[in-house]
Amino acid sequence: MMDYDILIVGGGMVGASLACALKDVPFKVGVIEAVRMAAEHQPSFDARAIAMAEGSRRIFETLGLWPAMAQMGVTPIEHIHVSDRGHFGASRLHAEAYGVEALGYVVEAEHIGQALNPALEALPNVEMICPAQVTSLEFQPEQVEVGIERQGEQKDQQQVITARLVVAADGGHSAVRELVGTRVLRLGYGQTAVITTVTTDREHGGVAYERFTDSGPLALLPCDDHHQMMPEGLQKHRWSLVWTARDEEVDELLALSDEQFIHRLQQRFGNRAGNFVSCGQRHNYPLGLQYVREHVSPRLAFIGNAAHTLHPVAGQGFNLGLRDVAVLAEVLADAAVQSLDPGDMQSLKSYSDWRRPDHLKVMGLTDSLVRLFSNKALPVRLSRNLGLLAMDILPPVKRLLARQTMGLAGRLSRLARGLPLVKSGQGE
Length: 428
Prior knowledge:
With about 425 residues, this protein is an alpha+beta fold. The chain has one domain: FAD/NAD(P)-binding domain, CATH 3.50.50. Helix content is about 35%, strand content about 30%. The strands form three sheets. Strands 5, 6, 12, 13, 14, 15, 16, 17 and 20 form a nine-stranded mixed beta sheet that branches. Strands 1, 2, 8, 9, 10, 11, 18 and 19 form an eight-stranded mixed beta sheet that branches. β1, α1 and β2 form a beta-alpha-beta unit. The longest helix is centred in the last third of the chain and has 29 residues. The two termini are about 20 Å apart.
């Protein structure tokens, strides 16, 4: 007797989203997670601000999860301003030009978790296996034997469970990836992201900034203060900052006092957003590119950061992973309708072939932006600024970039088009 049809390893934003997407699919789903399932314990659901593309909002809307997130507080990105520090090139994107209310939304990861976890608990076909860790994987023609270690109050317990398909959604340091020895392309940038929250003396106006500097991009995302009433009505003066710095500069940035940090930021960013007033606790994350060479193999699929991790420029990482979720869920729903094995390579290859063009486009975009705007050579500086100007005066070029960053380019999944995975009566 098979324990599960589908076993998702990782209950963070991507893994939990996949489980929710499979709610109407007649498969028994298990989710293995290393920590207790609560937004305040799951590392994926921390205080980071996530730039959620319009395409991702549509996926969550179709799944019925967006209203809960919106109620907890989201900030629309109505305009995006892209510039090159110290140079003339700049470009601007406006939501109204593309017939959408917002180009994207800033959502705290914690709020995503607070919407996903109750939805998971209410699903009759999903079982949480946590806290637990995967210790072994044995692939057989008809099933996968998954060795797990459950963390209990008295002692840890070893157990073997079976599934027809294992989905690795366990992040950039994927244990599944290590256990199976999957080949991974890795590129380093010599850069680290310093992330914090800052306030300014001017309202954000729904504008997000991407400012390229010689050490890496500086991103400011608008964040309304949904937690408490700030003094003097300053709810819209709050921003999430992603400061990309060279690795050798990071220790100094972290050691600065708040006043020194704000002063350095003002020098680096300029006055477009107003004067910086305060900053929160700073965190740092080393940056690089990782890409699994084979996204599927018999009875195994990779999604999210387990499959690809990107530089945060243009805010594409989570959105790319959520599109993985939508496509894999659709492929598995179609397999269920046809009474096919969810671990069959024919279905898994459909997922891999569908997703590869999107992966390559987004990786190419982010990698090119990082390398192009970190190059100090005069001809390169001149050409990239001319490129920014050309994009601003050539609507077709700008529209193509906008649709890609909004997650609306290429072949869209049913969930991104607002359509249910399973038609009424099919999943019964």
